[in-house]
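Researcher: Good morning. I'm working through a list of sequences from a screen, and I'd like to move beyond sequence-only analysis. For each chain I'm collecting a predicted structure so we can compare shapes side by side. This is the next one on the list. No need for commentary yet; just the structure.
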Amino acid sequence: MRRYGKHTDEDDIRSRPNRKGNRPRTHIRPKHEDAAEGLVLTVDRGRLTCLVEDRIVMAMKARELGRKAAVVGDRVALVGDLTGKKDTLARIVRIEERTSLLRRTADDDDPYERVVVANADQLAIVTALADPEPRPRLIDRCLVAAFDGGLTPLLVMTKSDLASPDELLELYGALDIPYVVTSREELENGAAAGLVREHLDGKITAFVGHSGVGKTTLVNTLVPEERRRVTGHVNAVTGRGRHTTTSALALPLSSEAGGWVVDTPGVRSFGLAHIDPSRVINAFPDLVPGTEGCPRACSHDEPDCALDTWVAEGHADPARLYSLRRLLSTRERKEGD
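Model: Good morning. Structure tokens for this chain:
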């Protein structure tokens, strides 16, 4: 076996030829400074529908992003074919920093976190007052997810002709959540869309609710033509572009103020395994000062919590503390309770 001394000549070193003839791999990645800005409208089987200027562009995630996935609402940077023509494909090379994130898990024991939408300003929680019956525990869970993710909640109550909204309004009154009450007739003739639109202009709003509450009907009346435009790139073989609300879909509002509506699939459950309870208190700014005397790692729902004394001294409404603790304990209760 040949051994090389301390002062070998380069000619003495035998190099292994590169049989593939390609360049050696490098860890230096391109910066893509000329990449175009886009908005992710929907994701289906690894293909992302994006809006680039006024064009609908199909794209896929670049390998260099690793396991980081783009979701509906993400602002992204794209390279490649940006014409939006049929059978063309661009590449997402960067995901911009997110301002908010709505997440959920399948249940409270599921470690796998599902991102519903990014960069939304508010969460419209749609619930029927009857047929199907309202599920306050599911509403509570959606509220916790909204507060944790940095979204402002909006409560939309449908089918008021079948039941009164008074009970729900009393339950959530202390939270000062904006709300809209609509009837079945208003939902069907489009009048409900006018009532809800006042809260949507200029904002990105994600709609969530379980099946049968009228969520998708409401979204369709808000943006009757845009759904067809966004899902127009349908592949007859793969079925890409099918949207019977099986995946989240962002649709632009046609108004001077602008805004976006994100329709999400109907949910049977809203797990909160990913939630950090310490962040929920931030949605109650009137109670935050009272936590200064709390013991370390206080759950704000235990005997030594300083909030009890703070509220007893008249610094905040007791109903607000009750609402906070009801939301914090929602992981311990089943949604159907």
